[in-house]
Each structure stands twice: as structure tokens, then as C-alpha cells.
């Protein structure tokens, strides 16, 4: 047998590389083990440092992952900047959009030094989302890797995101379009255990709600008064709003307890207790945080498996195609 030399191993490597880049490869737990072993550590350190500096970062990154995966699959389409000829996803409605992109940029810059042209921006978002959950007291799981970054990002796509005014049927339908179940819907909505909402996302519930009700009847009455104070009319403070549960920097099951008390911030949240298809999951998660953590892990893996186009790349700069 001929000894392995540079000449005869090169065609094999070439073949492997080309096969990999054209196939819609499955995601792997060990995708970077050989090609960039330090990559998770680099991302985790970056995310942890940014979160210590700005406590808003964990919630923003978790929401970033959700929005990215719901539009064209988890392909980092959310990271692309608008250009002269294209308005990108991040600049589409809803107005109150995702932020903290600089954290992903920082991780990417370090990764390009450590292992150039290797780690996709989509994988950076997935690892970061896992990290912010874990560092906030939530579960830890092994992220599957090997995503590619998409080449398309359109502002108009964001109209496909579920709205905070959606009822259960609309939410179920929106998740089902992505192969996600009713249980995934209730579980992933638990992401609202972290973070904050601006008044504009829920204030329609507080005044002149419908022809029959001045306020949303599914809301706790004291909670309505509290939110009216935080969101006065007229409101000159564009930063005003409400934390999504009573422990908004801790990843726990308090969100579900708040829902059972009529204190869900969005109609979409509160609607989960008003329907027999979803209520039993809310009750189970409110009772058993361990169960919520277990299901959240499973549903985040499913969310992270949503795939975009086959024709992806590893972007050098997360804000633009190569
Ligand atoms: C079920 C449908 C969902 C709807 C309708 C929805 C809607 C919203 C809205 C309107 C906001 C507030 C934006 C603002 O006013 O600043 C928000 C924030 C947030 N969402 Fe969702 N969301 C949904 C699902 C999810 C999922 C699945 C996750 C993650 C697993 C998630 C994570 C977050 C987080 C962490 C925040 C807080 C962001 C911050 O503090 O900056 N959401 N969501
Ligand atoms: C975004 O905000 C601006 C100014 O507040 C408003 O005029 C516009 O209608 C909003 N667009 C959407 C899609 O909400
Ligand atoms: C949910 O909203 C849709 C669209 O507005 C409406 O057609 C449907 O009847 C609503 N379903 C429920 C259960 O309220
Ligand atoms: C409530 O809504 C009705 C119908 O949309 C409108 O005519 C009325 O002016 C509103 N009232 C207040 C206080 O905004």
C-alpha cells in the first residue's frame, strides 16, 4: 500500500470538503472538535463578559436566536445589515427589534483570529443562546453545530413572526408551520422568563380594549393598574415598559406562575391559559421547574434544527455575505 503523502491524501481531503459544502449536512455535536476546539470557550467568555457589563444582553440574545430561526431557519439572516439595495431583516417591523448584535460581532472577530473561515455566525448565535440561558440559572445542553450562514435577509420576512396580539390558534399555526408542536409553543414561550417589553407591544390591552371591555378581561385587575402607570397616555418615555416576569434576569418557571395569576404581559402569553390545548402545559411547568427545563432543552434543540437554504456559507463578517 502506498504511504500517505501530501500528494495522495490531497484528493481525498478535497473530495470531503466539496461534499460537505454542497450537501445539506446534518448538524453534529462534535462538528468543531478537530477544526476549532476552542470555539465554544471563546463564545462563552465573550457572552459572559458582555452580560456582566450589560444585564440586558442575555434576554436580547435569546430573542435573537428565536427570530433568526423562525425566519429562513437558523442561518444568521438576522445579523445582516441593510444595504443600498436591500432592507434587511433587522430593519423590518416590528419596530422594537432585536439588539446586542455587537456581542456576536465580538465573538466572530475573536474566532476569525483563532480559526479563520471556520465558525458560522448561525452557530455563534445558537451557542450564545444556550449560554445566556445557562448563565441566568436555566438548563445547559449540548448544541448541535454545522449550520451555514444564509445569503438572504429581507425586512419583509419579519411579518411572518408571531405577533404579541395573536390568539392561541394563530400561535399554534405559526409554530406548526415550522414543525413545532403545541407543547413546543408553550415551552418556548417560557423564554419570556427573561427580559423586558416596551409599552407599544401590550398597551392596547390597557385602555379601550374592545367594544365590550375597556381592558383585556383576561388580565389581573391590579396588574392592569400597574401597567397603566408604567405606560401612561400620552407617554413621552420611549423606553418605558414592563419586565416579562417578576424575576426577569433569572431563567426560572416564574413566567408560568404569572400567567396563572393573570399577569402575562402580552395577549399571546395570557392566551396560553385560556385554551384547553395549552393550559395543562402551563400548569405543569408552573408546578415543576425541572420539567420546564427538560422540555425547554428539547424544544430549543428543535428550534435550532430549523434549516434555511442549502446554499449557505461561513460568513467572514456576520453583517454581510462574503
Ligand atoms: C410565541 C410567540 C412570541 C411572541 C408573540 C413574542 C413577542 C415578543 C415581544 C412583542 C417582545 C417585546 C419586544 C419589545 O417590546 O421590546 C418579546 C420579547 C422577548 N422575547 Fe418573545 N415572543 C414570542 C416567542 C418567544 C420565544 C420562543 C422566545 C425565546 C425562546 C422569546 C424570547 C423573548 C425574550 C428573551 C424577550 C425579551 C427581549 C429583551 O428584553 O430585550 N420570545 N417577545
Ligand atoms: C415604526 O415606528 C414609527 C415611529 O414610531 C412609526 O411611524 C411606524 O409606523 C412604525 N412601523 C411599524 C411597522 O410599526
Ligand atoms: C384567532 O384569531 C383569528 C384571526 O383574527 C380568528 O379568525 C379566530 O377566530 C381567532 N380564534 C380564537 C379561538 O379566538
Ligand atoms: C375608543 O375607541 C373608539 C372606537 O375605536 C373611539 O371612537 C374612541 O375615541 C376611543 N376612546 C378613547 C378614550 O381612546
TrEMBL record:
It is found in: Secreted. InterPro entries: Haem_peroxidase (IPR002016), Haem_peroxidase_sf (IPR010255), Peroxidase_pln (IPR000823), Peroxidases_heam-ligand_BS (IPR019793), Secretory_peroxidase (IPR033905). One of its GO terms (molecular function) is lactoperoxidase activity. Its cofactor is heme b; Ca(2+). One of its GO terms (cellular component) is extracellular region. Its EC number is 1.11.1.7. Substrate binds at residue 162. Ca(2+) 1 binds at residues 68, 73, 75, 77, 89. Belongs to the peroxidase family. Classical plant (class III) peroxidase subfamily. Belongs to the peroxidase family. Ascorbate peroxidase subfamily. Removal of H(2)O(2), oxidation of toxic reductants, biosynthesis and degradation of lignin, suberization, auxin catabolism, response to environmental stresses such as wounding, pathogen attack and oxidative stress. These functions might be dependent on each isozyme/isoform in each plant tissue. This is Peroxidase. It comes from Phaseolus vulgaris (Kidney bean). The lineage of its organism: Eukaryota, Viridiplantae, Streptophyta, Embryophyta, Tracheophyta.
Amino acid at each position: 500500500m502506498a504511504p500517505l503523502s501530501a500528494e495522495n491524501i490531497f484528493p481525498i481531503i478535497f473530495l470531503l470538503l466539496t461534499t460537505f459544502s454542497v450537501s445539506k449536512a446534518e448538524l453534529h455535536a462534535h462538528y468543531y472538535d478537530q477544526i476549532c476546539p476552542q470555539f465554544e470557550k471563546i463564545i462563552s467568555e465573550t457572552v459572559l463578559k458582555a452580560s456582566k457589563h450589560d444585564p440586558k444582553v442575555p434576554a436580547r440574545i435569546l430573542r435573537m436566536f428565536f427570530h433568526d430561526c423562525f425566519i429562513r431557519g437558523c442561518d444568521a439572516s438576522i445579523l445582516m445589515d441593510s444595504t443600498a439595495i436591500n432592507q434587511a431583516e433587522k430593519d423590518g417591523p416590528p419596530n422594537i427589534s432585536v439588539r446586542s448584535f455587537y456581542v456576536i460581532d465580538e465573538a466572530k472577530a475573536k474566532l476569525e483570529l483563532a480559526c479563520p473561515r471556520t465558525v458560522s455566525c448561525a452557530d455563534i448565535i445558537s451557542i450564545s443562546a444556550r449560554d445566556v440561558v445557562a448563565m441566568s440559572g436555566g438548563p445547559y445542553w449540548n448544541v448541535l453545530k454545522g449550520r451555514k450562514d444564509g445569503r438572504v435577509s429581507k425586512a419583509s420576512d419579519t411579518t411572518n413572526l408571531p405577533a404579541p396580539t395573536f390568539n392561541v390558534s394563530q400561535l399554534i399555526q405559526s409554530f406548526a408551520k415550522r414543525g413545532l408542536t403545541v407543547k413546543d409553543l408553550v415551552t418556548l414561550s417560557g423564554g419570556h422568563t427573561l427580559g423586558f417589553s416596551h409599552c407599544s407591544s401590550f398597551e392596547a390591552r390597557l385602555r379601550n380594549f374592545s367594544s365590550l371591555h375597556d381592558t383585556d378581561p383576561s388580565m389581573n385587575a391590579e396588574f392592569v393598574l400597574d401597567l397603566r402607570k408604567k405606560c401612561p397616555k400620552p407617554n413621552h418615555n420611549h423606553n418605558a415598559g414592563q419586565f416579562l416576569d417578576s424575576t426577569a434576569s433569572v431563567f426560572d418557571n416564574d413566567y408560568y406562575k404569572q400567567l396563572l395569576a393573570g399577569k402575562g404581559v402580552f395577549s399571546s402569553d395570557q392566551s396560553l391559559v385560556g385554551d384547553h390545548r395549552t393550559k395543562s402545559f402551563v400548569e405543569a411547568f408552573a408546578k415543576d421547574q425541572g420539567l420546564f427545563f427538560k422540555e425547554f432543552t428539547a424544544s430549543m434543540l428543535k428550534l435550532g434544527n430549523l434549516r434555511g437554504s442549502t446554499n449557505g456559507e461561513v460568513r467572514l463578517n456576520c453583517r454581510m455575505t462574503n
